[in-house]
Amino acid sequence: MAKILNVSNLEKSYSSGSKKLKVLQNISFTIEKGDTFSIVGPSGSGKTTLLGLCAGLDRADTGIIELCGTNLGVLSEDERALLRSREVGFVFQDFQLLPTLTALENVVVPLELQGVKKASKKGIELLEKVGLANRLHHYPSQLSGGEQQRVAVARAFSNGPSILFADEPTGNLDAETGEKIIRLLFDLNADTGTTLVIVTHDMELADMTQHQIRLKGGKIITEQNTPIS
Ligand code: ADP
């Protein structure tokens, strides 16, 4: 199987005043194309930071991240943004929808900005796929948390990403709604082959993924493959 993400000897620190806080140390792992992968660990262990680095949202201090065969470290900010727009989808815990746009506009506007033709038709298809055919013209404030996250998932899949990163995608949802979102993400993984990388503290969810790493204090303390039952 082809590798889609290769992380090698990654380190990241944040500066706070004159002090440096080492957040990630000696991180190495790989993810195969089409896999489902989770990153677990206590709060503050570096999960979100790691996800952001892998998605090209921020730069590592040292180490190599190869995403879709490209070394992120040698890319300019613009080149990383271009790679993200082509290959990466991202789902956030707090949905991050634009409140002044309808559900459909939240999906369509990013497509139009990328010059995608028939963006509106594509947006409608995506929202139908996530079960929101009857919510196209609702604003985020008129949608439940679960519906807002469905819009965010539709938006994240709109560019046909090779890899989707989700940071605590069920963190703001009740258990039943969260389960539906997870089922949606796994169905999309099965349908489209999009690799799924999920940060979560929900062990039931982590155990559903084929591979998982556990962070503690910025280091990988366990790495395991979950047998597919
Ligand atoms: P997790 O996702 O596991 O909760 P994070 O990656 O969010 O962990 O944070 C890891 C550590 O880095 C925490 O101590 C956090 O306070 C710190 N941190 C995160 N982002 C920043 C930032 N932009 N500037 C300074 N410190 C940060």
Query: What's the quaternary structure here?
Result: single chain
Q: What is the approximate shape? A: globular
Widest sheet, order of strands? 6-7-8-3-9-10
Query: What distance separates the N and C termini?
Result: 20 Å
Helical proportion? 25-40%
Low-confidence segments: none
| Total number of beta strands | 10
Q: How are helices and strands ordered from N to C? A: EEEHEEHEHHHEHEHEE
* Rg (C-alpha, Å): 17 Å
Q: What hetero molecules are bound to the protein chains? A: adenosine-5'-diphosphate
Largest sheet: 6 strands, mixed
**What's the helix count?**
7
Helix and strand composition category: alpha/beta
Q: Kindly report the average pLDDT value.
A: 93
Strand content: 25-35%
Detail the topology: elements first, then pairings.
Layout lengths: L2 E14 L2 E14 L3 E5 L6 H8 L7 E6 L2 E2 L5 H11 E4 L11 H11 L5 H11 L15 H13 L5 E5 L7 H18 L2 E5 L3 H6 L2 E6 L2 E7 L4
Helix pairs in contact: 3-4, 3-5, 4-5, 5-6
The structure holds adenosine-5'-diphosphate (ADP).
The site of adenosine-5'-diphosphate has 12 residues, from strand 1, strand 2 and helix 1.
Short recap of the structure:
The chain is built from 7 helices and 10 strands. With 229 residues, the protein is α/β, with parallel strands linked by helices.
